[in-house]
Amino acid sequence: MKNWKVSIYLVLTYIAMQIGSIYLGKLLIGYFQSRPGMSEQEAVFNGVAWSLFTVNLIASALFLLFIMPNKKYLKIFTGKKASIGNTILWGFLGFFLAMGGQMLAATIETAMGVEVGSENTAVLSEIARLSPIMLIPMVLFAPFLEEIVFRRVIFGGIFQKTNFWIAAIVSGLIFAVVHNELEHLLMYLMPGLVFSYLYYRTKRLLAPMIAHFLMNGFVAVVQLNIDKIQQLQDMKQAIILFGLH
User: Fold this and answer.
1) Which of 146, 147, 184, 212 is flagged as catalytic?
2) Residues 53, 136: contact at Cβ < 8 Å?
3) How far apart are CA 128 and CA 149, in angstroms?
4) Which end of the chain is more exposed for a tag (fewer CB within 10 A), N or C?
5) Is 181 a catalytic residue?
6) Which is catalytic among the residues 42, 126, 179, 181?
7) pLDDT at 240 over 50
């Protein structure tokens, strides 16, 4: 299969996944609402969580089905790929670079009067708190699917026709738009640029995937333990206030 056909199939699958999650979610919410002893919020959260898990699982399987027979599809850069060890190392380094980029973006957004915090992330974390199955699409499936779509399909396709910066910026902007939080454009663009660089630097999608996995995992852990973190901060402030050591 030609590379452009693979790209089209991947994008169509990704779009179908997004649309499918809406309709499947409605069906599953209705199913959970019919179960005795389940509140309205529990039914909605479980319906959303299981629908996202299901469509992400199916999309991941289809992605592999399209890519595996076309090994050359992932080769868009000339030169030798980084070793697996260096790729993993760059993945871990990329996590810190992406987090640093988001911190810088948050500082800029705050200076511009934009309220800190992602509503999408907060909502998904609340769902995961009640329905832990949500953690799988958040932490595993999303980085896998998004890196293939935004880094290989979009960044890779544009890179082959232009250069690194045009490809990285365009793919990063599309990455931000798809997440539907344009007020946090920089918050999504910064890690997008880092992920593109990791792909370009190592010539392996594994590097940005690792960084993306770690980033989503870190954010999920923080969001799920935000109450405990706040308590620790309050205790620290109390210790400082009363001069305890």
Assistant:
1) 146
2) yes
3) 24
4) C
5) no
6) 179
7) no
So what's the pLDDT on residue 152?
96
Contact present, 200 and 123 (Cβ < 8 Å): no
* 243 pLDDT above the threshold of 70: no
For CA atoms 92, 185, 16, 3, give the dihedral sign: negative
Other residues' Cβ atoms within 10 Å of the Cβ of residue 220: 18
Q: Reply yes or no on whether 179 is catalytic.
A: yes
The DSSP letter of residue 12 is H
The whole-angstrom separation of Cα 170 and Cα 159 is 10
Whole-number Å distance between alpha carbons of 104 and 187? 8
pLDDT for the residue numbered 195: 96
pLDDT in tens, 92-127: 999 999 999 999 988 998 888 887 767 777 788 889
Dihedral class, residue 85 (left if φ above 0, else alpha if ψ from -120 to 50, else beta): alpha
Rg, C-alpha atoms of the chain: 20
Residue with tokens 């960084």: 211
| pLDDT band (50, 70, 90) for residue 11 | very high
| Structural tokens at position 46 | 């479980």
Q: How much is the pLDDT for 245?
A: 46
105: nearest Cα among 154, 57, 178, 176: 176
Confidence class for position 237, pLDDT limits 50, 70, 90: low
Q: Are 88 and 174 in contact (CB under 8 A)?
A: no
CB count within 10 Å of CB 80 equals 7
Which residues make Cβ contacts (< 8 Å) with residue 95, sequence separation at least 6? 210, 211, 214, 215, 218
